[in-house]
Design a protein that fits this description.
Shape: globular
Structural class: mainly alpha
Number of helices: 13
Number of strands: 2
Distance between the termini: 27 Å
Helix content: over 70%
Order of helices and strands: HHEEHHHHHHHHHHH
Strand content: under 5%
């Protein structure tokens, strides 16, 4: 297993870290997060995020916090702005292997990880200074520790910590994690394994991780924070299309075929066999 992980880390690092700082930042999300991260350095304010001098609370701060640290270490540049995403991509490749190994076999885990590391859209986003791959990393990490808690109960605490960090990356999208975990616990019939004192400890740690920043920002911004953050991303984004992201169910087939190449078509063809 260790050999497989080392191989995957080497391969994914070559794919995701090579030429990472080449090219300008994209003019939308990537540039937004990079600028907010730069604002942290200028103001030394790690709580009240700002963009172009104005208050900005569109997303939680974890990605910008880490990017600000990379700015201090490696300078304000494209490499620093994208590094957290690329490292999370490498971690996601390894977690894909570990999850595949746990559910099926080492061979399945290795093939799954290789397929992910060679998927067009995954590579593009892992090498972009956006939140998606980092969020997926913490989602997978939370699932992995949740499963590992079947053998070592204390690992449920790490699952809650990963859940909290996922929330600090992409806010309410992280609520997908407890839905996955509860569904698995009920389907597998192992739900009793997760009802113990460590779950209570984990929930407390999760509340501290997530509640701390949200409380401090609400203290400073008040209802403007609630309207711009909670209302927009919890209610508006889940009930209607934003930023021109519209389409029918057929849109997802096109997304799979195009963005998941070269494996998307194989996945669609394989569906009848599951």
């Amino acid at each position: 297993m260790k050999r497989d992980i080392v191989i995957l880390l080497i391969v994914s690092s070559v794919i995701l870290l090579f030429n990472l700082g080449a090219g300008s930042l994209s003019s939308w999300d990537e540039a937004f997060y990079a600028e907010v991260s730069r604002g942290i350095l200028e103001t030394n304010n790690w709580i009240d995020l700002r963009w172009a001098g104005a208050p900005w609370s569109d997303k939680p701060p974890l990605y910008m916090w880490v990017t600000a640290v990379f700015y201090r270490l490696f300078g304000v540049n494209e490499l620093s702005a994208r590094l957290f995403s690329a490292l999370a991509g490498m971690g996601t490749v390894v977690l894909t292997y570990l999850l595949g190994r746990r559910f099926f076999s080492g061979r399945v885990g290795l093939l799954s990880a290789i397929m992910l590391a060679s998927t067009y859209h995954f590579i593009a986003f892992a090498k972009s200074g956006t939140l998606d791959v980092t969020f997926v990393f913490f989602l997978c990490l939370s699932v992995y520790f949740f499963l590992a808690a079947e053998e070592k109960k204390f690992y449920i605490v790490y699952s809650f910590i990963s859940f909290g960090l996922a929330f600090l990356v992409k806010s309410f999208a992280a609520l997908l994690i407890p839905l996955i975990l509860v569904a698995y616990a009920l389907y597998s019939g192992k739900w009793r394994l997760y009802i113990n004192r460590y779950s209570l400890i984990g929930f407390t740690v999760f509340f501290i991780i997530v509640g701390g920043w949200h409380f401090l920002v609400f203290r400073d911004y008040g209802m403007d924070f609630v309207k711009g953050y909670a209302q927009k991303h919890l209610f508006v984004r889940t009930t209607q299309a934003l930023d021109g992201h519209t389409g029918s169910l057929l849109t997802y087939i096109n997304v799979i075929l195009y963005k998941a190449k070269p494996w998307g078509a194989l996945g669609l063809v394989s569906l009848p066999f599951f």
